[in-house]
Amino acid sequence: MLKHVPQLHDFDRGNGVCKYLENNLCSIYDKRPLICNVQKMYEKFFANIMPPEEFIFLNLEACQKLMHYTEKI
Question: Where are the domains of the chain?
Answer without folding.
Answer: 2-71
